[in-house]
Amino acid sequence: MRFDTILIANRGEIALRIIRTARAMGLTTIAVFTEADAAAPHVAAADRALRIGAGPVGDSYLNADRLLAAARDSGAQAIHPGYGFLSENADFAEAVAQAGLVLIGPSPEAMRVMGDKAAARAAMIASDVPCLPGYEGADQSDDALLQAAEQIGYPVMVKAAAGGGGRGMRLAATAKDMRAALASARSEAAAAFGSDTLILERALTGARHVEIQIIADAQGTVLHLGERDCSVQRRHQKIIEEAPCPVLTNDLRARMGAAAVAAAQSVDYTGAGTVEFLLDGDGSFYFLEMNTRLQVEHPVTECVTGLDLVELQIVVAQGAPLPLAQADVQIAGHAIEARLYAEDPANGFLPASGPVHRWLPAEGDGLRVDAGIAEGQQVSSHYDPMLAKIIAHGPDRDSALRRLRHGIAETVLLGCDTNAAFLADVLAQPAFVTGQATTGLLAQAYPEGFTGAPPEPQEIAIAASLLVQDRRDRMAARAGGIDADLLGWSGARLAPTMLRLRCAGQIHALKLRALGQAWQVALGGAVFHIHLTRNRAQIVAEIDGARRNIHAHLGAGRVWLASKAGQRVFDEVTAHASAQSPETSGQVVAPMPGVVLNIACKGGDRVAAGDTLAVMEAMKMQHRIVAPVAGQVAQVRVAAGQQLDAGSEIAEITPDADRDT
């Protein structure tokens, strides 16, 4: 079982993470990539890299035949699947073994049991691992599931039996919600996992999501490495994770650890895995599922234990016993991780794509940034929207939290929309600061969604100054070296520059006047004096005598400006810009790149504002495309299965107000 060459069947951040440890162990690393990922950092970081497709995951990272061919062609003896993609696919694990290769992960049999939530529940019940009241029966008819829900008692959580990541999960608060929850969960599960089988569980409100990291070797040793609190979730997807859990006692930790070990032993588990539980306020805990792979949030466990989980995975995959015992596992300090996603929180958290103009991860004591992006790279709609993980470690929870908030504020990513401002806001919520967060935190804290703070007047003034100064500098370059102060010189006083900038849907009118190498900027009733100079990668802005360093990127009539909100994007509004928006015109466009799953309307249909017109899939999630206005569908311009770019027209509605009477 010894091997010296590993193919990483993944991409992005986790591929880089595996490469880092494998190379430190003296192993040769082979990366795989698509045309969309050709410029990704993991391609350059590996010893060798092989192209496996164009972009879509079905023809690349989810194509077992291509991955196995790449392993054969590269001479790899082992495959590390990372997380996501085929990492929990038992058929792939079996194919790897049949090809004479080592999968750095558990057996296909363990994957099959734990990958099927119905089979996993049955195995846990047989092993006396606590489970919530539920239903995992073979009868999948609506009548059977409705009857089971009545016996369980509402609220009920409807879950896809296959897969994970929050997909195929719906909450039914009452009986009247149940049929819609079943239909929606089945549809998403079938699209994501190829199976629409469902299970039901009693929904436990106000609970914490606490998981136990385990590691097991082929000699039968199973260790638990402490817990992670992953309660801060949106749509059942984790956003912030920490270790240890703020409310766990040593006794409760030992009992949950023992239950996790029992769960792993019930399927003869080997490798790294995570057993997830719901923890009630009274200290009761219940099995949710087992992830038979490395978790996204594994760095917080590494920070507090000092262990390298990827190294331990490789050690046990080579057949060696674990180099430590349970008594050797010690928890030191506290660690918190935040996931930086490519998404637009102010627009319903829709997935985002686009260029990475500037990427400067934060540095400092106790900070670790695991990322898979680089400047100049294009964030693709084909893949998961996670861009990076910002992790902070400190001697206690307060210091870890301070360091993480600093790390988010100091991390610069200009170009693609991100959730940085949202993360900063969540970390400042009183329930999180005091360690009282449950799975209901985000719904309670943001009942109307998240819009974020508007740009500060100084930010608007700086963006305007950057635009006009860049324009002036370009003119100077074309003018053959004439001093910028003399450009447009006249015996009369120069007329001011009038500028309108749009940011976050609001338009700001500014008046700028050149004062030598500085600018006088009037915005509303405020007047700023701004002097801009460049200092390597940064711009130094002196505003009314106060200096601040800023990061910015300029495009055609657009400024990306780093701020405490992650970034601000300012667009120049010209006189030719249309005053009518798609929201009022009845034009329905794709809000992000993605694939059309189905069309729910046709030409001539009458629709109300908010009616579903189509369903798109982007970055592994389904999104409803709704009518912006009431009216009649004039034309549908797309078909199911079609790949769309952001802004592609989907349909056109003739609004009621515009119809002839």
From TrEMBL:
Show where the ATP-grasp domain sits: 121-318
Q: Note the InterPro entries from the entry.
A: ATP-grasp, BC-like_N, Biotin_BS, Biotin_carboxylase_complex, Biotin_carboxylation_dom, Biotin_COase_C, Biotin_lipoyl, CPAse_ATP-bd
The cofactor(s) it depends on are: biotin
**Where is each Biotin carboxylation domain found?**
2-447
Where do the Lipoyl-binding domain residues begin and end? 576-654
The protein in question is named ATP-grasp domain-containing protein
| Any matching Pfam family | Biotin_lipoyl
Source organism, top-level taxon: Bacteria
Q: Which UniProt keywords apply?
A: ATP-binding, Biotin, Ligase, Nucleotide-binding
Task: Give the PROSITE patterns listed for this entry.
Answer: ATP_GRASP, BC, BIOTIN, BIOTINYL_LIPOYL, CPSASE_1, CPSASE_2
Organism of origin is: Ruegeria spongiae
